[in-house]
Design brief:
The complex is a heterodimer of chains A (about 350) and B (about 375).
Chain A (H helix, E strand, L loop, with lengths): L21 H15 L2 H4 L9 H5 L4 E9 L5 E2 L2 E2 H14 L4 E12 L4 H18 L2 E10 L7 E11 L15 E4 L5 H9 L17 H10 L5 E4 L4 H13 L2 E5 L7 H10 L12 E5 L1 H12 L8 E7 L6 E4 L5 E4 L12
Parallel strand pairs in A: 4-5, 9-12
Antiparallel strand pairs in A: 1-6, 2-3, 4-6, 7-10, 7-11, 8-10, 9-11, 12-13
Chain B lengths: L9 H16 L9 E7 H9 L10 E8 L7 H11 L4 E5 L13 H6 L3 E4 L3 H10 L4 E8 L4 H14 L4 E7 L2 H10 L7 E4 L1 H7 L5 H5 L5 E3 L4 H16 L5 E3 L11 H10 E3 L2 E4 L3 E4 L3 E3 L8 H4 L15 H5 L31 H7 L10
Parallel strand pairs in B: 1-2, 1-7, 3-4, 3-5, 5-6, 7-8, 8-9
Antiparallel strand pairs in B: 10-13, 11-12
Helix pairs in contact in B: 1-10, 6-11
Classes of the chains: A alpha+beta (about 350), B alpha/beta (about 375).
């Protein structure tokens, strides 16, 4: 483009920034197009366009997903809503075995939002996208009156390509499969709880927010026949395992002592009577891997930066009941069920 | 993790379990029927299920899950009162987290919040007082709930508000006291309980003496128990040893937390602020004499019941509910007609399905009844 680049001079977002006029152009061209900086976006068309032939070189199927992000607070230790919005959608694509390619970015901004905060979030999205190897190619912005939103809501959709021969599904778990997680669970949930400030705990807790696409490809290299993978975001590892058990019509037995949980996260759970197995993660996957490949997959995962604390935490067992069982430290056993509503701290 | 893992040592647990098995074998009466041991406290119920302790105990011990979950035994009418207060203009209604979901006859506090009331979850009554300081033009009401465990912190918060001259803070008092309820269970004609694991954190406040009548009059052993799995197993061992030896004593396993005399400062604050009610209604158990407290006249200006002219509405428990029988050990949770079908954690009908500490909810969520069939 030969025209001089437009600049957003406003310090806060006003209704004008969503009204379709010059103010909106300033916002879009300076903050979004300027930061995401790629040829697809710079066309400023109403849609991004891809060469089908190019996509077909990497695989036979498209994976397509969408997710909305409404976290409070917007910035928290180790990340913000921007990195979350990129990694979350990248991971939803990645756990199908797909190579994520393109993301969209829909933003709903609350009137009065600090433009500096918006710039930080957008820069964080760009950094996360670069790290994950995806491009943000299309977007949309709306502004809602003060009090009708909560600073920033982001929706991202994503497209990826599934390589030939990969068939990962929650319904593919088979008796004997080992259940693997790629590290310490519950960090994100505990970090958000702590960042809200109500607990006044003197601990450092950071989100585990990270992209998992490269880790998944590493796993597939060792074992192209990984049966099931899901990222354990909302509802945590427990929810994913319940979904595996239900979809595959099997039961799953976990060994409690093998489940990796950081001491500070355990501490938060102890104080509030919560369970880290239900805490949200933003960079953790749960996989069901054929038994004979489990050790090799585990080793490959541990050698990857996104999986150095990976562990085998249980196995799939034959059963008509489709339940998740947890063998406790003492040899007692309990059933891990889907969460009803949200986890609420206990009174005493 | 320090101060946690020591109390969850599997080796030690195995040794204690072996001794429990050995002692129970020496009790001849168990040939006719299993020993029924009640853990009074919801916190114990939670630990027993969380760690899968029940199936490690001898078959000749049956756990009866007692009434000590304050959220569960809260009558529907009181939740309705909470909602009615929360619906008043300029009210910020504050509550402990797990009371949010307790169903009233029309809605829970969580639903009231969705409908536009300002209902906030707090971790301590002091947080509620802080909200009052920061919102001088709002009336901040704290939902005081729980046994003697939470009573002192509520009392101290009220005294603090009094000292600071805060006028926009009040307390909706639903505190209850456990002793009359244990007595009511012991007096019930179909009672079959052989011994008790006594509440840990209640005892930290009231001490050992208030339980003596259980040993002296009703000839049942009671061991004040901590909440870690090893605490519970050791307390169980102490109970069955007493039964084997034909003793009925009040013993204290939870010595690291519970002083024999209780906590005098806490009791003083409680006595200053609260007095016994003539009776209080319990969900599942009905009205029990002297089982609740209210705010003394002297502190009437902090009493939400007086300020909002709450007329305690009596809402009967659903007829088909058998929570009372389950609480007394007469029925197992799954023997209730409603269990699992109409009554489950998503749509609780009876008290014991309401909180994760409730016996029925624990059975349902941790799948105790089908844990053996599930494999």
């Amino acid at each position: 483009m030969n025209k001089p680049k437009r600049t957003l001079r406003a310090k806060t977002i006003t209704m004008a920034h969503g009204a379709g006029g010059k103010a909106m152009r300033d916002l879009i061209e300076d903050v979004f197009v300027g930061t995401f900086a790629n040829p697809d976006l710079e066309q400023l068309e109403d849609q991004a366009r891809f060469e089908l032939a190019e996509l077909m070189q990497s695989g036979a199927q498209l994976a397509f997903t969408t997710d909305s992000y409404v976290v409070d607070p917007v910035e928290f230790p180790g990340g913000d809503i921007g990195s979350l919005a990129v990694n979350g959608t990248v991971n939803d694509i990645a756990v199908s075995g797909a190579i994520p390619k393109y993301l969209s970015c829909g933003m709903i901004l609350e009137e009065g939002l600090d433009v500096k905060l918006l710039r930080r979030v957008v820069a964080s999205m760009k950094a996360a996208a670069d790290k994950a190897g995806v491009t943000i190619v299309t977007g949309d912005t709306k502004v809602v009156p003060k009090g009708k939103g909560d600073k920033i809501f982001i929706n991202t959709s994503g497209i990826g390509v599934i390589p030939e021969g990969v068939d990962i599904s929650a319904s593919n778990c088979r008796a004997g499969d080992r259940i693997i997680v790629n590290g310490l669970i519950g960090d994100h949930g505990a970090a958000i709880l702590n960042a809200r400030g109500d607990l006044a705990l003197d601990v450092t807790l950071e989100t585990d927010c990270q992209a998992l696409n490269d880790l998944v490809q590493t796993m597939l290299k060792v074992c192209p026949d990984v049966h099931a993978i899901r990222d354990a975001s909302r509802g945590g590892v427990a929810t994913v395992l319940c979904e595996f058990a239900e979809s595959s019509a099997v039961s799953i037995r976990l060994q409690e002592e093998q489940i990796p949980v950081r001491d500070t996260v355990r501490g938060v759970c102890e104080i509030l009577g919560l369970d880290a197995l239900y805490f949200a993660n933003e960079g953790k996957l749960v996989a069901a891997v054929p038994a004979d490949k489990a050790e090799a997959v585990l080793e490959a995962m541990r050698n990857h930066p996104a999986g150095k604390d990976s562990a085998i935490i249980g196995e799939v067992i034959e059963s008509n009941y489709n339940r998740v069982l947890v063998k406790t430290h003492f040899g007692g056993e309990r059933i891990l069920d889907m969460l009803v509503g949200e986890q609420l701290p206990r009174i005493c | 993790m320090k101060f946690v893992d020591e109390f969850r040592d599997p080796q030690m647990a195995r040794r204690v379990l072996e001794r429990i098995h050995a002692v129970v074998e020496e009790i001849p009466a168990t040939a006719q029927r299993p020993l029924q041991i009640m853990e009074v406290c919801g916190g114990h119920t939670h630990s027993i299920f969380r760690y899968g302790l029940e199936e490690l105990l001898p078959d000749k011990i049956e756990m009866v899950h007692g009434p000590g979950c304050p959220v569960c035994v809260l009558p529907m009418g009181r939740v309705d009162d909470c909602v009615a207060i929360a619906e008043q203009p300029d009210v910020i209604f504050t509550t402990f987290g797990d009371a949010m979901r307790v169903p009233g006859s029309k809605k829970s506090l969580q639903q009231a919040n969705s409908d536009g009331c300002d209902v906030r979850m707090v971790y301590s009554p002091m947080d509620a007082l802080d909200i009052a300081r920061k919102n001088p033009h709002k009336n901040v009401v704290f939902f005081g709930l729980g046994f003697e465990t939470t009573m002192p912190s509520t009392a101290l918060t009220l005294l603090q508000a009094d000292r600071e001259g805060i006028t926009n803070f009040s307390l909706f008092c639903n505190h209850i006291t456990i002793i009359p309820t244990i007595k009511a269970i012991l007096d019930s004609p179909d009672m079959v309980i052989d011994g008790f694991l006594g509440p840990g954190h209640v005892s930290m406040v009231i001490g050992k003496a208030p339980y003596e009548f259980i040993a002296s009059h009703y000839k049942r052993p009671l061991v004040i128990a901590g909440f870690e799995p090893l605490d519970i197993l050791q307390s169980m061992l102490m109970v069955v040893e007493q039964i084997r030896d034909g003793k009925a004593l009040v013993e204290n396993q939870y010595k690291r937390i519970v002083p024999e005399q209780g906590n005098n400062n806490a009791l003083k604050a409680v006595g200053e602020v609260f007095e016994l009610r003539e009776f209080f209604e319990w969900r599942g158990l009905g009205s029990i004499d002297h089982s609740g407290v209210r705010i003394r006249e002297k502190y009437a200006r902090f009493d939400a019941e007086r300020l909002f002219a709450v007329e305690p509405a009596h809402v009967a428990d659903p007829k088909a509910c058998q929570c009372g029988e389950v609480l007394k050990g007469v029925l197992k949770p799954w023997e209730c007609k409603l269990f699992g079908e109409q009554c489950n954690p998503e749509t609780p009908i009876g008290a014991l399905m309401v909180s994760t500490e409730g016996a029925c909810s624990a059975y349902y969520s941790y799948g105790k009844i089908d844990v053996k069939q599930a494999v």
